[in-house]
Each structure stands twice: as C-alpha cells, then as structure tokens.
Amino acid sequence: MRRRPEVLTEVREAPEREKATRVLVEHHEVLRGLMRRLLATPRSQPGRRRALADELFDELRMHEVIEEEIFYPAMRDVTPGIAAAWSEHRQLSDQLAALVRADPRTGRFDRELGVMHDALESHAHLDEEREMFPEIERFADEDLLVELGDRLRDRLERLRSSRRTRMVLRLQRALLRRTAR
Ligand SMILES: [Fe+2]
Ligand SMILES: [Fe+2]
C-alpha cells in the first residue's frame, strides 16, 4: 500500500495562527526596522533615504488601514483608548507627509525624521504595545483575537500585493512632493 505523506505536508504548510495584537506588534517591528535604517542613512545618500522614506510611507499607511478597518472597530468596546488612537493616526499621517515632502539632502529631512521617530514610538510602543494591547489581551475573547489576527494578516498581504494600492500610494507620494515648498 502506498504511503500518503500529504497529510504531513499539509500540517507543515498550515500558517501559524496568532492573536491580532501579535500580528500588529510584528508589523510595528517592520516599521521600526525601516525607521532604524533611515536614521542610519546619511545625507550623502539621498536616493536611499528617499527609497526608505517611500517604503515607510507605504507600510505605515497600510498599517493604519488594517488597524482602522479591522482592529479598532472590533475593539471599540473593549478599551477606551481606541478614539485617541484614531486621532493619533491622523497626526502620524501628517508627519509622514512632512517627511516625504522634505528634501533628503537637507537638515529639514533630519528634523522631520526625528519628529516622525518620536511620534511613531509614542503611538506604537507606548500607547498600543504598553497600554492598549495588554488591556485587550486581558479582556477580549481569545478566539476573536486569533480570528482578527488572521484577518489582519490576510488584509495586509492583499494590500501589499495589490497593484491598485501600490499605484494609489505612489500617486499620494508624488502629489505630496509636487506640493512641497
Ligand atoms: Fe495604531
Ligand atoms: Fe499599530
């Protein structure tokens, strides 16, 4: 009789399911990594700075989309921090626009990058990871958090591989730079 190794393969290929809070922290790490690389790239490499700023813009915009479409609405009744988080996203978006507009060869870019770094740490690390997420993990249903984790990961992958999303983000960046003073 033939053996059937397919079952084992299926087990190995099944994605590991994680709570929504874990999925979001992992994406925060991606954002932090980009920020670290930006901070380590000198003014003498403006092309690389610009490419990293573009990548940060796209990833942060997608992060805000998945939180605002899926996570925040589902957690609205679990923690009072959601309303504040929403308005912090608006501030982050404004700062992101200021960074993308800044010429990467100038001190202004460094200043906008510094403000961006502080704003991102304050929101993602202090407000979400240190306050909101532990509260959510304590009070929200575990199965719901795992289901939301699947949805967040799936939505993020779809956004990343969507040609339309990529085009819209590219247009937004181009428009910001065109209106830069
Ligand atoms: Fe957020
Ligand atoms: Fe976040």
TrEMBL record:
<protein>
    <submittedName>
        <fullName>Hemerythrin domain-containing protein</fullName>
    </submittedName>
</protein>
<dbReference type="InterPro" id="IPR012312">
    <property type="entry name" value="Hemerythrin-like"/>
</dbReference>
<dbReference type="Pfam" id="PF01814">
    <property type="entry name" value="Hemerythrin"/>
</dbReference>
<feature type="domain" description="Hemerythrin-like">
    <location>
        <begin position="21"/>
        <end position="135"/>
    </location>
</feature>
